[in-house]
């Protein structure tokens, strides 16, 4: 069963190592460990529904509670610290395109608002229920998860948009094919969610971002069923797929999508390298990204993140050995770790890619430790989010903030984001543990992905105050640096106040005009994506 | 000087070989060779302007004549057969973003309509002047053609949008960089034109389509200057670049664009291969496209096109030798020709790509003739359009029609398009010479590019009747096959009636709503792209 108030499966716990706890207390002080709200208490907070239960609409308190939140920090404060609500009035679980059509028609008749729900993994409050006077239906798409067609000649799979990563991949792999989309939220996030939030998977160097994989989609909008895209390549006017991608539910509910797929690769390995400093490591990452060498992933941790990751792994003797080895190879005590993914259809190609990428890395002074650490990384690639549960239980909050910028701006932006995070918490006399990595590299630049850990407070309002200051300061640092307000998480409620900097007022007007053409009553996930009066930026 | 009434430079003639003329007469009969209108006669057709000449606006008859048309067949009938008009009331030649801003403001004050003019190479009537009662200004962007900035660290070039291919590449190559965008119209078409019509270059396998190369653009719209895009990668809402791309001037005038560039490659070669039949050749093209082998181009002529190309080249003894060689290798007398582009940063990579691609081709029975024919192709890659002048003078009209479809639909669509062309002209008791190639291949499918040659008639109205029947029949065959109405030419006036099949009515409403948000008076290239009442489809 999915945890109702945290990340992942409730039978899986990944407690922190003792040494990690000691490290956190030394760096941040001890955090508050006030007990959580329990499930029954939480259900009791759910008030009466404005909608009548029927075969389509589940108005039970448990369903409404479990669909009221995602994984944004304010969501965590809500479900862990008893700051719950508002709740959707009902939860629907359609199983087909026709079900969704019927549901949207019904919602329209009822004057209700629809909030699409995929895997519930949004970290920017795509799922927030905003009470504007209308009843709210959360539409859980997870039952529409089947592989409907696979054309191996054209390499196109038609999939139900509610398919979460493991269900989607299992169906494709049974035929020898893969989509190759692996965001950290893979275990729960869904195809439809990936599409409307422009998700980027860990191996996007090989498989592309989700927008590169979409051939076409079927969408249930209030007034019509839309068929968007479907052309292999076209010069016939604007590409409407690129409006659907990133629409965050405001155009309608994606029910089915035609996706480019490819055969399951024969070889895959993740090589871990270390560099003496950031400058050398970034030069290697840029060199590989601009060379055209088709590695599947380049992931580069800064010195702080490298240090913290080695500490949090907890295998002290192995890590001590690794640190000695790195020191012996002359990299000093502040190394930066790079993980290089090599994915290929045959071993000869894998060897060639590995050789070419390692050669560029070595020219920048990189030292390879082989693939053992990379195998550990791969085995835990989707498990990182479980640390959030363990950290919270230990008295610490954690959040991540991210952007993408040109190479010239990569290090300055990363430093400005980290400084903003430290300064924001220093304003409350709190310390922050802050570290970053580049998660996706491109010819012109890179993403910057920053993690912040800080102490929970005794008062949940104080937790929220800390987060608001942190989020505002870092978001401001991002847009001031010319970065996108999100490279991979989307906009939701949390990033909406910053969108105008990136898109311009005219650009927002263009987007709003499209939504209004399709959804004049603004019943499809309103209050998300586009900024509204009263949003605090 | 650019030819006012045909393709290319007026000092360049590429007459047909005698053997080619004999072949055309045998296949099609002799065409009409009525003499053309001359330039002075044509200027005399230009009536008075509704605008007053000033430092911004050139109202001379010659300027207005030369900006009244593109390269669509109806354009040819207009300027060659005295069916001229309507004409723009003035031609403007802005030299900077500020000039364009001033010009658009002035046009707005005058209640005038703006038609953007890049290189004048549109084959679908993007440049047509439609008289809706308002004066029309043709904005010739060719003076805004400079490389404004080149960031080699991030590999981004900022360019004036009026830069035509040779001017653009010369400036980049002076620094060792290239955009790598080579449509057949390269000599005249401009960056801004490529962007707003979603152009695809011949080597798009390596460099991408123009939409893959765009980082961001500055656009002068009626009410505001727009800055669109600029993010390396983003999950922050819809991608507005993809609305600008394909907007065909309706959002505004693109003045400057930031483009991804790369170093000039060290090696380039074009290998020519022959296959016994289409099935084998298509299997090889698909195999290469799906393998991930990074050839820069795959171009595959069907048997008819292979035959015609060899005939029209005119080197009879060399071609006879080639035909004997192909026959001797057992490929029969209806071979299909493939041209494979190999472009790489070093010789080792070039050898690897060549080996991998030829290996797939050989498995499908392909016979390589090496790179000599490919070198001839490359030397003439932009000269093919000159054949239009020579054919017209010899009594023949020529047009091309194109789409893209999934691999499963490639051969059926090509055959349906060819049959439609034959049948349309057979309705007039006319024969057609029809042949096709795949010009751009993708993992999921391919473009299909068809050429039709037929006799000119003594009466220009008859020429237009032939063309209308041909265009309607082939366009209908394309949309019936599920293909895009254009893979690389755009929509303009000629394809607008077919756009709704591809985009849906709701999709067209989405596009119209964006244009109306930015240009409520519809002064920017109106009557293009979106279908209008009275359009004949």
Automatic annotation (TrEMBL), chains A, B:
Keyword terms of this UniProt record: FAD, Flavoprotein
Residues the record marks as active site: 449 (proton donor/acceptor)
Protein's UniProt keywords contain Flavoprotein: yes
Cofactor: FAD
Segments traversing the membrane: none
GO molecular function, one term: alkylglycerone-phosphate synthase activity
Residues forming coiled coils: none
PROSITE patterns, alphabetized: FAD_PCMH
Keyword match Flavoprotein: yes
Site entry: Important for enzyme activity: 299
Gene3D superfamilies listed in its UniProt record: 3.30.300.330, 3.30.465.10, 3.30.70.3450, Uridine Diphospho-n-acetylenolpyruvylglucosamine Reductase, domain 2, Vanillyl-alcohol Oxidase, Chain A, domain 4
Domain FAD-binding PCMH-type: 84-264
GO BP: any one term: lipid biosynthetic process
Binding site for substrate: 388
List of residues binding FAD: 116-122, 248-254
Family note: Belongs to the FAD-binding oxidoreductase/transferase type 4 family.
Protein name per Swiss-Prot or TrEMBL: Alkylglycerone-phosphate synthase
High-level lineage: Bacteria, Pseudomonadati, Pseudomonadota, Gammaproteobacteria, Salinisphaerales
């Amino acid at each position: 069963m999915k945890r109702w108030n945290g990340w992942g499966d409730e039978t899986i716990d990944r407690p922190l190592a003792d040494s990690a706890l000691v490290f956190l207390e030394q760096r941040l002080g001890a955090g508050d460990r006030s007990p959580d709200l329990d499930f029954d208490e939480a259900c009791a907070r759910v008030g009466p529904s404005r909608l009548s239960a029927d075969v389509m609409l589940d108005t039970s308190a448990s369903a409404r509670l479990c669909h009221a939140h995602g994984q944004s920090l304010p969501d965590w404060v809500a479900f862990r610290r008893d700051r719950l609500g508002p709740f959707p009035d009902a939860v629907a679980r359609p199983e087909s395109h026709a079900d969704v059509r019927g549901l949207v028609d019904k919602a329209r008749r009822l004057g209700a608002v629809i909030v699409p729900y995929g895997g519930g993994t949004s970290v920017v409050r795509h799922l927030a229920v905003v009470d504007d006077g209308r009843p709210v239906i959360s539409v859980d798409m997870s039952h529409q998860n089947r592989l409907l067609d696979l054309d191996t000649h054209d390499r196109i799979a038609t999939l139900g948009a509610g398919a979460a990563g493991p269900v989607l991949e299992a169906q494709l792999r049974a035929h020898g094919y893969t989509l190759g989309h692996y965001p950290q939220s893979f275990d729960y996030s869904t195809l439809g969610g990936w599409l409307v939030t422009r998700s980027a998977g860990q191996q996007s160097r090989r498989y592309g971002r989700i927008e590169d994989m979409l051939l076409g989609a079927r969408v249930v909008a209030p007034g019509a069923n839309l068929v968007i895209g479907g052309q292999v390549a076209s010069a016939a006017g604007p590409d409407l797929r690129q409006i659907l991608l990133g629409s965050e539910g405001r155009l309608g509910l994606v029910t089915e999508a035609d996706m480019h797929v490819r055969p399951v690769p024969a070889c895959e390995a993740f090589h871990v390298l270390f560099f003496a400093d950031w400058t050398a490591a970034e030069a290697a990452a840029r060199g590989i990204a601009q060379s055209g060498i088709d590695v599947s992933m380049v992931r580069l941790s800064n010195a702080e993140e490298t240090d913290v990751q080695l500490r949090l792994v907890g295998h002290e003797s192995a890590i001590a050995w690794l640190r000695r080895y790195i020191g012996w190879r002359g990299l000093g005590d502040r190394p930066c770790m790079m993980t290089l993914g090599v994915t290929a259809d045959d071993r000869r190609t894998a060897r060639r890619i590995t050789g070419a990428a390692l050669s560029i890395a070595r020219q920048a002074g990189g030292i390879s430790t082989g693939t053992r650490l990379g195998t550990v990384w791969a085995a835990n690639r989707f498990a990182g989010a479980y640390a959030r549960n363990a950290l919270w239980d230990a008295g610490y909050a954690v959040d991540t903030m991210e952007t993408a910028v040109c190479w010239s701006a990569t290090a300055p932006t990363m430093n400005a984001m980290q400084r903003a995070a430290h300064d924001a918490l220093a304003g409350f006399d709190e310390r922050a543990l802050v570290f970053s990595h580049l998660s996706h590299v491109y010819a012109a630049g890179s993403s910057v992905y920053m993690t912040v850990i800080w102490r929970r407070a005794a008062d949940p309002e104080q937790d929220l105050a800390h987060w608001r200051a942190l989020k505002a300061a870092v978001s401001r640092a991002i847009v001031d640096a010319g970065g996108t307000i999100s490279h991979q998480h989307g906009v939701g409620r949390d990033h909406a106040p910053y969108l105008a900097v990136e898109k311009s007022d005219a650009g927002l007007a263009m987007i709003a005009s499209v939504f209004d053409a399709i959804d004049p009553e603004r019943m499809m996930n309103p209050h998300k994506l586009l900024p509204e009066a009263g949003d605090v930026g």
